[in-house]
Design goal:
- By secondary structure, the protein is an all-alpha fold.
- It has a single domain, classed as Hypothetical protein af1432.
- 65% of the residues lie in helices and 0% in strands.
- It has ten helices and no strands.
- It is globular, with a radius of gyration of 18 Å.
Length: 189
């Protein structure tokens, strides 16, 4: 039980790890990796349903895709230019799950390999969810005045592969992220 609790504590560390790519465009307090993973999982579930993929597998991939960042932090794309982050990610992930019971470890290993190969419908959906979460966050930051985040929207969309992901991207570009709550306000005289 201690090993499982240690794994859960380590997952909790992601609440304190900030998404570093946003610092490059001047966002002083960007969302955490945990916040990104949560919405990525929500998007993944919805995309899985739209694409008729297994939502359980997509949820696993989206929730645990960045778990390694609890140990090695989030590295923005400029950093990836100089550091082969994939090797470190794999090493950390293997150590992290190495302490878990075999049944969990086997499932995580299979899920990670499937995601990395990008050959199954579920892995493609999970990757699209990750991209769309970043695009959606960029749109929200853009509407709060961070104009350089538009480049994240433009670049991210080039990597989408699912029909549903591309349709959501098209809508995100014209959608107002601040209006979802407007009709929920109660006005009184």
């Amino acid at each position: 039980m201690d090993k499982i609790l240690n794994f859960l504590a380590e997952a909790g560390q992601l609440k304190r790890v900030k998404r570093s790519g946003w610092w490059v465009v001047g966002i002083k307090d960007p969302e955490s990796v945990a916040e990104h993973c949560f919405r990525c999982a929500v998007i993944g579930y919805i995309l899985a349903k739209m694409e008729k993929a297994d939502p359980y597998k997509v949820l696993l991939m989206t929730l645990f895709n960045d778990i390694h960042e609890s140990r090695i932090n989030d590295l923005h794309k400029m950093g990836h230019r100089y550091i082969d982050f994939k090797i470190a990610e794999s090493k950390v992930f293997k150590e992290q799950i190495g302490l878990l019971p075999l049944i969990m470890r086997s499932e995580f290993e299979g899920m990670r390999k499937e995601y990395e190969l990008q050959k199954t419908k579920e892995s493609l959906v999970a990757r699209d969810a990750d991209i769309l979460e970043c695009v959606l966050q960029a749109k929200e930051y853009l509407e709060f005045g961070y104009t350089q985040t538009k480049s994240f929207m433009d670049v991210g969309g080039k990597y989408l592969v699912t029909k549903s992901g591309k349709a959501l991207l098209k809508k995100i570009k014209t959608w107002n992220s601040k209006k979802w709550w407007f009709h929920l306000k109660k006005f009184e005289r």
